[in-house]
TrEMBL record:
Gene3D superfamilies: alpha/beta hydrolase. Keywords: Hydrolase. It comes from the Bacteria. Residues 22-265 form the AB hydrolase-1 domain. It comes from Micromonospora maritima. InterPro entries: AB_hydrolase_1, AB_hydrolase_fold, AB_hydrolase_sf, Peptidase_S33. This is Alpha/beta fold hydrolase.
Length: 280
């Protein structure tokens, strides 16, 4: 069932909810993308009432700023208040994992579980991005020249989609199915908000450098599940310091899965998430 959520500054956010049970709000990655977590919802909607949403400026939500971390935290709070109730579980993927963590740090009394999927951690000094770039180029393989050519200039929507599909294919561990999985992510194609991506990416990096996120994580009592795929091209050691800082965290690494572990190990992902939600 779809719904519109209005934020305190009047921005319209697209949302959807399905399933029965305690609320679980999903936060998609990007930033600047749209919700692609329908498969996650279908894996767990017999254990939770799953709420998905397109972040501000993305997908089916209204195309307007500002694109700041504080603003996105406030938008998530609006989704929570409108659809989930006083307290909710949160699941964030990639950039969405950072958003969900930041929300839990700001509003721990409104979060009962936090599931941090394929995030990149809280350590600004270890420099995971150069390793990611090398791994991306290596995994693109024969598709690398075309991906590079498509990035030289602003393209048509079809060319933007083609480049995204090629890039996202590197997020899957099995070459034979990677392009198909990436094409599924890009269908329907709702366009990536590049302005949103740049603004939030830069602010999140600056925030990790200038604020003591580690100390705030040490004080977080909310139970946290960290889920990784062992074949993610973003180095998983980037999350080690986050795991060490959280006082009530466990970590599950799904062997042979990439950046979207629910795609390549759906049953392992379902087991980890549903066990966490029902035993903590």
């Amino acid at each position: 069932m779809t719904a519109d959520v209005r934020t305190d500054d009047g921005c319209r956010l697209w949302a959807d909810q399905a399933g029965t049970g305690p609320p679980l709000v999903l936060c998609h990655g990007g930033p600047g993308m749209w919700d692609y977590l329908g498969p996650v919802a279908r894996l767990v909607d017999d254990h939770a009432r799953v709420i998905r949403w397109d972040q501000r400026g993305c997908g089916r939500s209204q195309r307007r700023g500002p694109y700041t971390v504080d603003r996105f935290v406030a938008d998530l709070d609006a989704v929570r208040a409108h659809l989930a109730g006083p307290r909710t579980a949160l699941l964030g993927h990639s950039w969405g994992a950072h958003l969900a963590l930041r929300y839990a740090l700001d509003h721990p009394e409104r979060v009962n579980h936090l599931i941090y999927v394929s995030g990149t951690g809280i350590d600004p000094d270890r420099g995971w991005h150069p390793r990611y770039e090398r791994n991306l180029r290596r995994r693109l393989g024969a598709h690398l020249p075309r991906w590079e050519a498509l990035g030289v200039r602003a393209g048509t929507p079809a060319e933007e989609r083609e480049r995204a599909v090629l890039q996202w294919s590197a997020d899957f561990a099995v070459p034979d199915t990677a392009l198909r999985h990436a094409d599924d992510m890009a269908t329907p194609w709702l366009g990536v908000n590049a302005e949103c991506n740049r603004a939030l990416g830069a602010e999140a990096k600056r925030e990790l450098s200038e604020s003591d996120v580690t100390a705030r994580c040490r004080a977080l009592e909310v139970p946290v599940l960290i889920v990784d795929g062992t074949e993610d091209i973003r180095p998983r050691w980037g999350v080690d310091s986050l795991h060490r800082a959280l006082p009530n965290a466990e970590r599950v690494s799904l062997v042979g899965a990439g950046h979207l572990p629910w795609v390549e190990d759906p049953q392992g992902f379902r087991r980890a998430v549903t066990r966490f939600l029902t035993t903590h």
